[in-house]
């Protein structure tokens, strides 16, 4: 829990933090890719059913991420301030808050499977398949939310390597267990979609044990019950950042759910192709997601230590890298989309839809990375409203309306064009907004220092 990010070369810190996180995010995305690959072998209906679960699973994952963002923001700033007792209290209270949230959402989720997925456009023949996956996944939410919050606390302390190792181990467990549960290897019952959910739940359970063990070992937990006002104050501070972060994170998968319902008009194969392309996109964006994940702890610690110039420098380097990496990804993915899609499913329509998406959308990947970096930055600063505003503009003002119009005029290609345009527009906004925020803080600090100096001069004269 040292202020280990407030000194030294900024660029080197970003590289040293991002590289281990790449492997952690790679493991998480890899098991999603593995799920898609194995389920794709079951058939187009099973793949479509899993694609319908994606927005819901991601929405509830966003709840966990939002709580983690709120916890990471205040914990990183407390570390920057050098307040160990405050760090312990906030870490423990964030875990108790996540446990409460799990109980609420498991109950709601299990009671709304049929109406929710019917509203998303799932056909009656797909609902039994969706049930088999979601009934297991909902009960495993405790192994999703609590470890994610715990891992966020670990990252806030600058222990990116540990957080990454936990993610890697869980990903490996999931990938290894998938074929055993899905296809019934080694004499196990063939569970198909339910097996994919079972493998995910077991893998997540390992992250719960690992995160709690590390937090215990590093003395980041309190073992006495706080007074109610103290607990509520901790929850309020976490939720001040966490609720907008969770809300804005939920907006994206919920909007994708709306987009999925638009794609569903073109058939189950189109939904399956959209699902394949979405997972390939996530895999290609691993580096940008990793950078966004570590920029929060770096900014939080330096902001808490009042090292504003280091925050500004880290953002300059991060945005430049997003631009470079986006161009690199587009040059690789766009011409190879058909081949990549065929690895998951051989259905010509599935391949065509996925390949079309991967031809159009990659031009905006750099801007999408800039959005993630800007959002993580504002949350780390304890300023969640700009982050929320960017997501609202991106998804509700631009993406969904433009996708609706694009479908009417250009068919399914219009939906994909809307994706690219909304990414580029809001990525530019995020860059401008973060630069202005840092400049304003620098100016306010300079004015404050001038004011203090004037008071000292007046005092000396007297």
UniProtKB/TrEMBL annotation:
Q: Does the keyword Repeat apply?
A: no
Q: Which GO terms describe its cellular component?
A: plasma membrane
Compartments reported by the entry: Cell membrane
Kindly name one Pfam family recorded for this protein: MatE
Q: Which InterPro entries match?
A: MATE_fam, MdtK-like, Membrane_Transporter-Flippase
Q: Which domain of life is it from?
A: Bacteria
Keywords recorded for this protein, A-Z = Cell membrane, Membrane, Transmembrane, Transmembrane helix, Transport
Transmembrane residue ranges: 21-40, 52-76, 97-116, 136-154, 166-188, 194-216, 237-266, 286-305, 317-341, 353-373, 385-404, 410-433
The molecular function GO annotations come to: antiporter activity; xenobiotic transmembrane transporter activity
Concerning NCBIfam families, the annotation shows: matE
What is this protein identified as?
MATE family efflux transporter
Origin organism lineage: Bacteria, Bacillati, Cyanobacteriota, Cyanophyceae, Oscillatoriophycideae
């Amino acid at each position: 829990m040292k202020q280990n990010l407030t000194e030294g070369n900024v660029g080197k810190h970003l590289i040293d933090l991002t590289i281990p996180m790449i492997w952690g995010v790679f493991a998480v995305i890899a098991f999603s890719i593995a799920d898609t690959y194995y389920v794709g072998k079951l058939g187009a209906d099973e793949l479509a059913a899993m694609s319908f679960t994606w927005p819901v699973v991601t929405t509830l994952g966003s709840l966990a991420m939002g709580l983690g963002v709120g916890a990471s923001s205040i914990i990183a700033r407390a570390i920057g301030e050098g307040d160990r007792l405050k760090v312990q209290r906030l870490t423990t209270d964030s875990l108790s808050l996540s446990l409460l949230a799990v109980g609420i959402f498991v109950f709601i989720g299990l009671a709304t499977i049929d109406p929710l997925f019917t509203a998303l456009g799932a056909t009656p023949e797909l609902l039994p398949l969706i049930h088999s996956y979601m009934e297991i996944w909902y009960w495993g939410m405790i192994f999703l939310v609590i470890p994610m919050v715990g891992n966020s606390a670990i990252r806030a302390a600058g222990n990116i390597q540990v957080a990454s190792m936990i993610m890697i181990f869980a990903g490996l467990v999931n990938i290894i267990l998938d074929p055993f549960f899905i296809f019934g290897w080694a004499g196990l019952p063939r569970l198909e979609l339910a097996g994919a959910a079972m493998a995910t739940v077991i893998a997540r359970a390992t992250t719960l044990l690992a995160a709690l063990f590390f937090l215990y070992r590093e003395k980041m937990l309190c073992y006495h019950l706080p007074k109610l006002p103290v607990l509520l104050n901790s929850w309020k501070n976490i939720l001040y950042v966490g609720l907008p972060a969770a809300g804005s994170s939920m907006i994206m998968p919920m909007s994708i759910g709306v987009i999925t319902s638009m794609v569903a008009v073109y058939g189950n194969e189109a939904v399956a192709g959209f699902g394949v392309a979405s997972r390939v996109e996530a895999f290609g964006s691993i580096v940008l997601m990793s950078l966004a994940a570590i920029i929060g702890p770096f900014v939080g610690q330096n902001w808490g230590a009042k090292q504003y110039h280091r925050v500004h420098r880290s953002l300059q380097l991060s945005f430049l890298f997003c631009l470079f990496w986006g161009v690199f990804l587009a040059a690789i993915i766009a011409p190879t989309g058909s081949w990549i899609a065929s690895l998951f499913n051989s259905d010509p329509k599935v391949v065509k839809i996925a390949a079309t998406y991967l031809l159009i959308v990659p031009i905006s990947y750099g801007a999408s990375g800039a959005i993630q970096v800007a959002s993580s930055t504002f949350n780390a600063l304890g300023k969640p409203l700009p982050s929320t505003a960017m997501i609202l503009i991106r998804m509700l003002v631009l993406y969904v309306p433009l996708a609706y119009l694009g479908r009417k005029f250009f068919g399914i290609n219009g939906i994909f064009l809307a994706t690219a345009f909304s990414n580029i527009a809001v990525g530019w906004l995020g860059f401008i907004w973060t630069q202005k925020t840092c400049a304003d803080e620098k100016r306010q600090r300079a004015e404050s220092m001038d004011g203090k100096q004037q008071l000292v001069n007046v005092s000396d004269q007297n």
